[in-house]
Amino acid sequence: MRKFIVRCLLGVLLVACLACGAGQTQQAARPPIPVDANQNANPIVQPADIPKSPTCALLTDADISAVQGEAPADAQGTEHLAGALVMSQCFYKLKTFEKSVSLEVVSPAPGGGSKTAAKDYFRQKFRKAEEDAARAAEVERKKQEELERERAAGSVREGGRPKKHKAWKEAVAPPERVRGVGEEAFWARNQDAGALFVLRKDRVFSVTLSGLEDRETKIRKATELARRVLKHLGKKNDER
After folding, report:
1. What is the pTM assigned to this prediction?
2. pLDDT in the model for residue 125
């Protein structure tokens, strides 16, 4: 009888052990708890943590305030690759929006390629401008010579225009050279804004101003801002 009881107890223990082992095996074989893949896909980013374009460091709040009369409320930059060139922009938004300033820096793309790519870009861009300016000057010279001949022949109406002369169309002024800033500089404009393009060694940068100010004022302000950009570019080169 005692042997029978012992055998029963051993049988119960064996079954319990097997059940325990089976439970552990089943526990280990469970698949991991699924995690939401989008849980951290769009973390909250504070504005101060967003990296700014390095171009935004080339004009300080004090620089812009000294020229435009107020400091920027915000500065946002972008940068992209365009063939052999890197185009880096920064838009300095002012409270008086028409006083806002746009700065773009064009430099050779890293990782090889031509180190003169930006200079070639500048020369190609403004070589045609100088040729156009020369042609415009030649047209104006011939126009004046024609008016002088007609005036001498007595066929000029009051106001200095020939009798059968077609109305002169106002030509769009080509870019004009600006002295005293960078290695070379040109002022170019459209109906709404004007930009000063400056060549400095292996980089080209442009300062764009809009608003209702006259051309002379815009050129003066853009030139002052460009000189401040050149100072900061010089400091960056010294730190290398």
Report:
1. 0.63
2. 85
Backbone angles phi, psi at 137, to 5 degrees: -65, -35
DSSP state of 180: S
| Distance from C-alpha of 61 to C-alpha of 58, rounded to nearest angstrom | 10
Write out the H or E segment, with its range, that includes residue 81: strand 72-82
Mean pLDDT taken over the chain: 76
Please check whether residue 219 is in contact with residue 187, taking contact to mean a CB–CB distance below 8 angstroms.
yes
| Domain made up of 49-156+174-239: CATH architecture | 3-Layer(aba) Sandwich (3.40)
Q: What tens digit of pLDDT does each residue of 163-203 get?
A: 444 433 334 567 889 999 999 999 998 767 899 999 998 89
**R_g of the chain, CA atoms, integer Å:** 36
Q: What 3-state DSSP class applies to 185?
A: strand
CA distance readout (Å), 151 to 119, 144, 165 = 47, 10, 12
Q: Please check whether residue 208 is in contact with residue 102, taking contact to mean a CB–CB distance below 8 angstroms.
A: yes
Order of strands across the sheet that contains 85-94: 72-82, 85-94, 101-108, 203-209, 194-200, 184-189, 176-177
In the chain, where the domains are located: 49-156+174-239
Q: Which runs of E-coded beta strand occur in the chain?
A: 72-82, 85-94, 101-108, 176-177, 184-189, 194-200, 203-209
